Automatic annotation (TrEMBL):
This is Kinesin-like protein. It comes from the Eukaryota. The gene is Kif12. SMART domains: KISc. GO terms for biological process: microtubule-based movement; mitotic spindle organization; spindle elongation. Pfam families: Kinesin (PF00225). Transmembrane segments: none annotated. Residues 6-350 form the Kinesin motor domain. ATP binds at residues 88-95.
Length: 354
């Protein structure tokens, strides 16, 4: 095995909203090119370097091609465990980057130009499977972590809570999670939209459609290459076949970090916010420890939250991970933007053994 850094850690800066523009917020985040982003404000003047920076003018297609997402799909087909994170402050554009407009449905699909990383990856996956001549078996599972409960978004009826288990061979896994086979782009997009509509969202001062849960959609890819040579693969499962590979492509839409006083949350919303922040803190703690040189690492506390348990393999083990940090350019969001950028810098130092 070889030690490699995350293949890509990219920054996406959303446009100023109409509210921010009317309020007179200043733009404090600037794209310098070559993966550099500069933050300039009173008492804050810093430059950060990443794999790529996408500013307000970048299209969804630009993000897909420039982030290395296409290569990640190919690695998943080759049998690797691949994960895509979107993280950042609530309202920073995480769900839009992954899925596109929230208003889309099966009856009202989004414009092709606005489709996110997920739909573009599905199309790329199906194109690759046809061009490679592989015998691919594809299935999908979709869950959310809401108030530290794991809930299946694809099972019939109200989302049911599922237990999280541990085994020596599988690591942490969700018991009895529904996995649905699919063969077409329409089928997997339908599963995505159905599950997303069941996900917990609420309105507050920072975001009218704030995600109140972490969502994980996983594509399971089992491939068996079929050779045209009659003698190929004999003794490995019969003439004309090669050993099978099993890869995964997991999309993680993290609920936004937020300050309760900024959102005006109270009651149930406040409980949700505290639960979200605790799990994000646990994730940040794991990333900080993983970023240390291997000889100086202490125990990595994956068990501190359901989120870190499910992402243990992606964070520090056998996976390959793309992280997309979404930030606001507004002066009003300066504190959260700096927090996200520092978080991303720590994550960039993490190495894995895929």
């Amino acid at each position: 095995t070889s030690v490699s850094p995350y293949p890509s850690l990219t920054i996406r800066v959303r446009p100023l909203t109409c509210t921010e523009t009317r309020r007179g917020d200043r733009r404090v985040v600037h794209n310098l090119g070559d993966g550099a982003v500069h933050v300039s404000a009173a008492r804050h003047d810093a430059t950060f370097g990443f794999s790529a920076v996408f500013d307000a003018g970048a299209s969804q297609e630009d993000v897909f091609e420039g982030s290395g997402m296409r290569q990640l799909v190919e690695l998943a087909i080759d049998g690797f465990s691949c994960t895509v994170f979107a993280f950042g402050q609530t309202g920073s554009g995480k769900t839009y980057t992954l899925m596109g407009p929230l208003a889309q449905s099966e009856t009202q699909p989004a414009s092709p130009a606005l489709l996110g990383l997920m739909q573009r990856s599905f199309a790329c996956l199906l194109e690759q499977s046809q061009s490679r001549g592989s015998d691919l078996s594809l299935s999908a599972s979709y869950l959310e972590i809401y108030n530290e409960q794991v809930r299946d978004l694809l099972s019939p009826g109200p989302p049911c809570t599922l237990p999280l288990r541990w085994s020596k061979t599988r690591g942490f896994y969700v018991e009895n999670q529904l996995s649905v086979d699919f063969e077409s782009l329409e089928a997997i997009v339908s599963l995505l939209l159905q599950g997303s509509q069941r996900r917990r969202t609420s309105a507050h001062a920072l975001n009218r459609h704030s995600s109140r849960s972490h969502a994980l959609l996983t594509i399971h890819i089992r491939s068996r290459a079929v050779s045209t040579h009659p003698a190929a693969g004999e003794g490995l499962g019969g003439p004309g076949t090669c050993p099978s590979k099993q890869g995964t492509l997991c999309f993680v839409d993290l609920a936004g970090s937020e300050r309760v006083k900024e959102t005006g949350s109270s009651g149930e919303l406040s409980v949700e916010a505290n639960s979200i922040n605790r799990s994000l803190l646990a994730l940040g703690h794991c990333i900080s420890l993983l970023a240390k040189p291997r000889g100086k690492r202490t125990h990595i506390p994956y068990r501190d939250s359901k989120l870190t348990r499910l992402l243990a393999r992606s964070l520090g083990g056998s996976g390959i991970t793309l992280m997309v940090a979404c930030i606001s350019p507004s002066s009003r969001c300066l504190s959260e933007t700096l927090s996200t950028l520092h978080y991303a810098c720590r994550a960039r130092r993490v190495t894995t053994r895929p």
